[in-house]
Amino acid sequence: QAQLVESGGGLVQAGGSLRLSCAASGRTFSSYAMGWFRQAPGKEREFVATINWNGDNTYYADSVKGRFTISRDNAKNTVWLQTNSLKPEDTAIYYCAVAYGGTLHSRWNGYRDWGQGTQVTVSS
Predict the structure, then answer these.
(1) Residues 50, 58 contacting (CB under 8 angstroms)
(2) What is the pLDDT of residues 64-77, one digit of tens each?
(3) How far is residue 6 from each of residues 28, 44, 96, measured CA to CA in Å?
């Protein structure tokens, strides 16, 4: 079982940026795809971005495409989500997760281990 700890959230004005980090341990990190999801109050958890096992393939939700970037450094057991041009509708708790395998996943049931989340709040 992997242990995941997110950090980097906070309060930012619309148009600003945050760099979210996810530190992983307890599992062979380089063998698995990773993902970011978010959940806003009163809404279902939604997919944000995913990256495959070696970092050479990524996929993004349409709502964040062109604004967010997912990356990883397997030597550091870390995944990042760079969030740019933030909008108030990006306000949510952001979760990182490790997938069952090495390929991309865009649904929550493709992931087996989850972090506790980090809060991102975007003001207008």
Answers:
(1) yes
(2) 999 999 999 999 99
(3) 18, 19, 7
